[in-house]
Write a structure and sequence with these properties.
The complex is a heterodimer. Chain A is an all-alpha fold. Chain A has 2 domains: 1-60, no CATH class; 61-261, no CATH class. Chain A contains 9 helices and no strands. The radius of gyration of chain A is 22 Å and the shape is globular. Chain A starts with 7 loop residues before the first helix and ends in a 22-residue tail after the last helix. The model of chain A is unreliable at 267-271 (pLDDT under 50). Chain B is α/β, with parallel strands linked by helices. In chain B, the strands form 2 sheets. Chain B has a 6-stranded mixed beta sheet, with helices on both faces. In chain B, a hairpin with a 6-residue loop joins strand 1 and strand 2 (17-21). In chain B, helix 4 packs antiparallel against helix 5. Chain B is globular and about 45 Å long. The chains are: A mainly alpha, B alpha/beta. At the A-B interface, helix 6 of A face helix 2 of B.
């Protein structure tokens, strides 16, 4: 089996399908044609760029450049987590909580996977590191974003109940415990669902890729399993870290619920 | 079991407040809505960031764990919230234990024999007009007035040494208002608890006596001193 190379003409044919969809949206007044085209253009540019950058990275295997790329990916994931918050923390915390928890979880799980499970030489070999980190970050990002969003919105809505627990002589820990559980559960549900239905309806992306690239299906399935396990560990760790940091930040040293540390909804005032 | 002393307590909209309540003293605060009465009580309970210190007896608030402080200086908010489904889940476990044997006296599996006298919690609930089985009720079933009275029961069951009451009788009919006033007075007398009470009702302030403070232009000032008249409360019992 050999890899079927795609020509620009093949891609253009596929792009025509997107154009048709945009035309339909315009004809039916769905109003998404602009966003659809912009998104398609963005993904074209982004993926081409990433392809170029990875080509350069793979050729050199320079740990510093790889580190830079990893940090860039983390930085973008941090912004993405921030943007998915309805009520973000004010100041550097808004970005920091998401980024720090993703850093802790993704990078530790990544190191573990590369050095103990896959055992590539050197461990920072970019052909393994970059795609693995990408998948880890992408999933951790969703988990952390959902968990944090559930936490901050929940705290905002349940202020009276949380303060009632404080007034009943509860510590901040007890006052936020049930909300913390809900947030964690919300953050973990996507990956649990993904694992539960994996392969039944659609083949997971990574397995699809490997099969298209010519790997035997069993090998592809094993890699996919490995990824799902490490991703769920990473997502879990990331959500736990985000919820812990976030819930701690909701209270001050006198264990007062500080909703003033969250931004007002919809208003993007500075700090 | 100790005086409550506010020292330069400064909620968001008020000038610094200095106020000392002797052990067992009742002090009323009134003022137009939005003037900062509730904020003052929240500040004393340490729910909002603010400047100033509060002393309970000889102990400063800043030397005490926040949870411990809020348990000892109990705030009854104007709008009490319930975080669990059943009423009983909101009561301290120790108080529930004391109450349980009488409620389930027929249960043969019960380890402890029912105590001869009513436990303290049952007595408290009865004084507020509830049967002991109210602890099994669902919070969603309660009326506004029932919620308000049960919120007081919940607060007193945690054994505070000073009370901060925010409109404790605002939604109550005259009969239940009297119950709440009597229960509060009895608690104040039995535990020598200082009570800082925000009330809109001039008759209530007149009836119960005590020093009265009002808020004008962001300042707390004494409006009139009414000598406490415990005899009148006794009469109505």
């Amino acid at each position: 089996m050999s890899l079927v190379l795609l020509t620009p003409f093949d891609l253009a044919l596929a792009a025509v399908l997107v154009l048709l969809l945009a035309a339909m949206s315009w004809y039916l007044h769905l109003g998404v044609e602009r966003r659809l085209l912009i998104a398609a253009a963005r993904s074209t540019v982004q993926l081409m760029l990433v392809g170029l950058v990875l080509k350069g990275l793979f050729a050199q295997t320079n740990p510093w450049l790889i580190g830079l790329m990893a940090l860039f990916m983390l930085a973008v994931a941090g912004i993405e987590v921030l943007q998915r918050q309805k009520r973000r923390f004010r100041g550097p915390w808004g970005y920091g909580i998401g980024a720090v928890s993703m850093f802790i979880s993704s990078f530790s799980v990544l190191l573990l996977t590369l050095t103990l499970i896959i055992r590539v030489e050197p461990w920072y070999q970019p052909q393994y590191l970059i795609p693995l980190l990408g998948m880890l970050l992408g999933n951790t990002m969703s988990g952390a974003a959902i968990a944090l969003d559930t936490l901050t919105r929940g705290a905002w809505d349940a202020r009276g109940r949380i303060e009632a627990r404080l007034l009943a002589g509860g510590t901040w820990d007890q006052a936020i415990a049930s909300l913390r559980r809900d947030s964690l559960r919300a953050g973990l549900i996507p990956i649990v669902n993904a694992m539960a239905t994996a392969g039944l309806v659609s083949l997971p992306g990574m397995m699809t890729g490997q099969i298209l690239a010519g790997s035997p299906p069993m090998e592809a399935a094993k890699y996919q399993l490995l990824m799902m396990f490490v991703i769920s560990a990473g997502t879990g760790l990331g959500s736990v870290a985000a919820v812990w940091l976030g819930s701690r930040r909701l209270f001050d040293e006198r264990e007062r619920l500080r909703l003033d540390r969250l931004r007002d909804q919809g208003r993007d005032r500075g700090n | 079991m100790g005086a409550l002393r506010l020292e330069g307590v400064r909620p968001r909209v008020l000038a610094p407040v200095n106020l000392t309540l002797a052990a067992g003293e009742l002090v009323f605060i009134c003022g137009p809505s939005g003037s900062g009465k509730s904020l003052l009580l929240r500040a004393v309970a340490d729910l909002d960031p603010h400047a100033g210190e509060v002393w309970l007896g000889s102990e400063a608030r800043s030397t005490m764990a926040p949870a411990r402080w809020r348990q000892r200086v109990g705030l009854l908010p104007a709008d009490a919230f319930w975080w669990a489904d059943a009423v009983g889940e909101h009561f301290p476990a120790a108080a529930r234990e004391r109450s349980a044997p009488t409620r389930r006296a027929s249960n043969p599996g019960e380890k402890f024999p029912p105590p001869a006298a009513d436990s303290r919690l049952d007595g408290l609930l009865a004084a507020l007009g509830f049967a002991p089985d109210v602890l099994d009720w669902s919070v969603a079933r309660l009326s506004t007035g029932e919620r308000q009275r049960l919120a007081l029961a919940r607060l007193l069951a945690q054994g505070p040494e000073a009370l901060l009451l925010d409109e404790a009788t605002a939604n109550l009919d005259p009969g239940n208002r009297e119950r709440v006033e009597l229960v509060t007075a009895a608690y104040r007398a039995a535990h020598a608890a200082a009570v800082l009470w925000v009330s809109h009702d001039p008759e209530q302030r007149e009836r119960l006596g005590g020093r009265q403070f009002g808020i004008r232009d962001g300042r707390l000032g004494q409006t009139e001193a009414v000598s406490a008249d415990p005899a009148r409360l006794e009469d109505r019992r």
